[in-house]
Amino acid sequence: MGTPLFAISADSHVTEPGDCYVDRIDPRFRDRAPVAATDPRMGAVMEIDNGRNRIPYGMVAAAGRPPETVGPFEFTDWEQLHPGGWDPAARLAEQDRDGVAAEVIYPSVGMLLCNHPDADYKKACFDAYNLWMAEAFCAHAPDRLIGVGQTALRSVAEGVEDFRRIKELGLRGVMMPGHAAAESEIGDYDNPAWDPLWRAAAELGLPVAFHILTSGNDQIGGAQYRGPKMNSFLGIMRGCQDVIGTMVFGGVFDRVPDLKVVCVEADAGWMPHWMYRADHAVKYHHNWLGDRELARLPSEYVRDHIHLTFQDDAVAFRVADLMDHRRLMWASDHPHSDSTFPHSQDVLAEHTAHLGDDVRDAILWRNCADLYGLSLDGRQAPQAQQAQQGRGTDA
């Protein structure tokens, strides 16, 4: 292997520990707090809302394991999991092993909690998570563990306060629910009633992120897919695409021009065609489909406002010139099952071989550092050389 490439993951995850929620949650919800358990069939799980759901950690934290060992009913004990999912010191060692200098870190349990029907319960869980993330995880190495907070959005005003609290905690962005708790009263995210929230995000310097699997209609193996179950996997980016279209066609960026939106883990190779198709719709079908007047073409809003993260989407690297490459951000997704860990350096060397140094470095680290205000400058070599020794496929 040649010289390691400097890289920051724009999307990685924790696997929340058993004390993440229960020790910090509003006491009114303590008896319903997510808790760690061992299921006789699945092994390590997080139990949600007194067993309403069980999240199999062996499937969630399957990075580096052979595909034939990954599945919701493959028994995985706690000792088989990546300890960096909850232990920040162990996480730094895992970064070094993978040749990653820093990670923007999202929840795992919190992703699925976005789809929980009880808004008050979501609010309590997200507040507890934000405290744990800031105080127990990111504080260990804030220059390498870049935390993103959560909000339930029971109202616009509460969302603004959540954003301010997230900023005060030192977290660098906000993972949004695909559908806000207050959507039934206020309407979707393009409703101007949400504009104070978007202005607050812009003023606080907090990118708002929409992650796959948080919109209810983008669940792997869920009810809303056609054909064989494998077909459901191809639709998981749809929730993020719908949010992008809602905000672009809804004129949000005309009203709040400094807002930054991150489309997380939905790949990026499809975006040039989406931009073309969106422009085509506005040019040829505005008379009967358009209900808003836009100042610019949809593709222009995407180039200026939409950042996209992706793992091993080789197509995204190939079509970077058809987008604004400054909006593309590579991610490892560690420790999830789609992660490139512990082979990220090998994947990046192959997928970026055709790119010039400037474009490559922008996608691998500079765009992420600029978006989140990170001090890493590309001169600090990750420990990838050492990481190459002893690489394996163990969990």
Automatic annotation (TrEMBL):
Residues 82-374 form the Amidohydrolase-related domain. Keywords: Lyase. SUPFAM superfamilies: Metallo-dependent hydrolases (SSF51556). InterPro entries: ACMSD, Amidohydro-rel, Metal_Hydrolase. It holds the Pfam family Amidohydro_2. The keyword Lyase applies. This is Amidohydrolase-related domain-containing protein. It comes from Yinghuangia aomiensis.
